[in-house]
């Protein structure tokens, strides 16, 4: 990274800062690297004063922790409102798959929050076509994943062994312990995810499902103006999509089923 970055940018000072942060103790380094991304924008534009700069930070909220998510977005907002001298505008786009982080940020009104569903069927088919054969037919791949590209890649890596992927999800999400505690409620959520939206359902279960990234809760209206790209259907029982709650992917629902069995 150091070699390529120096050759491409000739900004050795910035490389030194990133390398120094990365060499520190884990945890401290993650936070410092995430905040350095903001500093990097200011530094680059003050040095170059030309062209455009893009800084991409992946999984920032996982690295810095939910409690710092709002502060991080506020720092990005400061860049937007007060761009470095010589720059006309700054655009900040922050994406997260963590359900709780959206609520943490949204309560401060520092960002315009828009949901993005899995890939549209047309876009997903383009991705599917690039995967080499042998493979199941497209409709089967769509039925299993609901357009989730990560689930598609897991199926491909598992040589389309659905049971292997499901068992991996059960282990990774710790679903057997959750089923022991919430079996009766989970049976209803597997039957229809909107059951989770009922008042008599335990909040603790809802929070667990969100924290384990198994569901999307309190879905936006399906009008295109509320969504980035194509919104999901109003309801689709086969894909596990309800009006207010949806499984992240049909395979997430299958994993909960598998844990119950």
Overview of this protein structure:
With 261 residues, the chain is an all-alpha fold. It folds into two domains: 2-106; 121-260, no CATH class. 54% of the residues lie in helices and 2% in strands. It has helices at residues 2-9, 12-22, 28-48, 60-64, 69-81, 99-106, 121-129, 138-145, 149-157, 162-173, 175-191, 203-211, 250-260, and strands spanning 215-217, 245-247. The model has no long low-confidence stretch (mean pLDDT 84).
Topology:
Blueprint (H helix, E strand, L loop, with lengths): L1 H8 L2 H11 L5 H21 L11 H5 L4 H13 L17 H8 L14 H9 L8 H8 L3 H9 L4 H12 L1 H17 L11 H9 L3 E3 L27 E3 L2 H11 L1
Antiparallel strand pairs: 1-2
Helix pairs in contact: 1-2, 2-3, 10-13, 11-13
Q: H/E element string?
A: HHHHHHHHHHHHEEH
The shape is globular
In terms of per-residue confidence, which ranges show pLDDT below 50 for 5 or more consecutive residues?
none
SS-derived structural category: mainly alpha
């Amino acid at each position: 990274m150091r070699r390529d970055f120096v050759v491409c940018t000739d900004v050795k000072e910035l490389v030194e800062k990133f390398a120094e942060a990365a060499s520190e103790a884990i945890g401290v380094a993650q936070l410092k690297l995430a905040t350095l991304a903001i500093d990097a924008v200011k530094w680059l534009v003050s040095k170059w004063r030309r062209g455009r700069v893009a800084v991409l930070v992946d999984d920032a909220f996982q690295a810095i922790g939910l409690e710092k998510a709002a502060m991080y977005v506020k720092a990005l907002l400061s860049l937007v409102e007060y761009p470095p001298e010589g720059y006309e505008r700054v655009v900040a786009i922050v994406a997260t798959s963590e359900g709780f982080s959206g609520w943490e940020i949204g309560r401060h009104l520092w960002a315009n929050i828009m949901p993005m569903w899995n890939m549209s069927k047309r876009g997903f088919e383009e991705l599917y076509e690039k995967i080499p054969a042998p493979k199941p037919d497209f409709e089967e791949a769509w039925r299993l994943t609901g357009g989730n590209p990560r689930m598609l890649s897991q199926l491909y890596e598992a040589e389309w062994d659905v049971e292997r992927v499901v068992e991996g999800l059960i282990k990774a999400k710790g679903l057997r312990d959750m089923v022991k505690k919430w079996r009766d409620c989970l049976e209803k959520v597997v039957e229809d995810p909107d059951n989770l939206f009922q008042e008599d359902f335990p909040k603790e279960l809802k929070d667990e499902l969100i924290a384990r990234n198994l569901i999307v809760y309190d879905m936006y209206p399906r009008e295109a103006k509320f969504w980035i790209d194509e919104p999901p259907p109003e309801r689709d029982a086969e894909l596990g999509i309800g009006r207010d709650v949806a499984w992240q992917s049909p395979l997430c629902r299958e994993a909960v089923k598998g844990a119950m069995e």
